[in-house]
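User: Can you fold this complex?
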Amino acid sequence: MKPLIFSACLLVFATAAALSALGQGCGVDMVRNYAAYQSFSSDGSNIYTSVLVDGSATCTPTPSCPCGTATHTPKAYNKIASNGGWGTGSPGCVNCYLSYENDQSTPASPGVTYQFNGEAQIICSIAGVFYDQLFSGGLAIHMSAYKFAGVSSGRCAWSPTCTGKCTASGYTTNMDNGKCYSGLNIYRQCYDLTYSGKCVDYRTFCLGQPGDGICN
Amino acid sequence: MKLFAISLLLTSSLLFAQHDHAAPHIIDGAVHPELIPDSTAYRLYFLVVSEKPNPPAEAKRRQLAHLQMLRLDNEDLQILITELENFKVHYTQMIDLYNAEATAALASGSQTNQPAFLVQRDSLVDATREKLKSRLSPDGLNRLELYVQNEKRNMSLTIEEGQ
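Assistant: Here's the predicted assembly.
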């Protein structure tokens, strides 16, 4: 019985020690100053995604942790639909400043959701991954349509003609050389962007047209 | 057997304790956008939407798609593109210079003054914002500021970066 108890206790202490060592990065205080950013946009027929990692670390070498010889490498994963994947920046010294961006895009049909997965990492040649940030969500272009509703307080007013995912109850725009629309284009077909089911950009751009538009 | 089970439970609790300990090191802008400093938010935004001079056509399309979301008039859009290009050029030069010094310092067993570099980096962001304040229309500037504040939900940073 005693060997069993001893083994179990040893297992606990060994696990605790190992976790402690991992958390401290070979026993030195390492200051990490990193930031990550996921960004997306659309031009109505494509969705563009970017993943950025930017920042630096400091490490003072000690005999037990010769971090002065280490290198740090920035990596960013950016996959939209079936496009993209991992990208890797240039390795730098342990105190170097790293900034790396992975840009991708996919052709996009309105109303279709495209899966986006992103990840920003800094890899240390000694400690392995020591900065990691994940992003994910579904991106989709949606359509909304509006009709000219007159001039209000010197601005052009637009009212919806159908109801889509990101349709607004109405909005106004600046006049362009005293006009709200050109020719017979009293209707506007607009394109919106959603992320994880939420409208993140309304009317990213709108095109004037003479007939009613589409909503989805 | 009971003791072995208890040991396993302790091991599991240590694993979870370690996980909890690591979590506070990251500020997630999706949860706490108010904890992302403006200087950091503008820096990240400027980096993603800026291009170096004479960018490839695909990069230009991407930039315009990003900036389209601000809904600036054409004059403001051109001003922003120009200032972003200046930012990108200076930022890249600043990093290249610092990294050369940091590498040389480590090779000689010394350290560079990284805090001073980070101040210099943030000064470039501040200077770019000041230029935009003086050159963009009030409406354009307002649109940019609202957009960057909103983008904080897509950013994350280490606690040290946020201090």
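Chain B touches chain A through 55 residues (CB under 8 Å). The longest strand of chain B covers residues 155-158.
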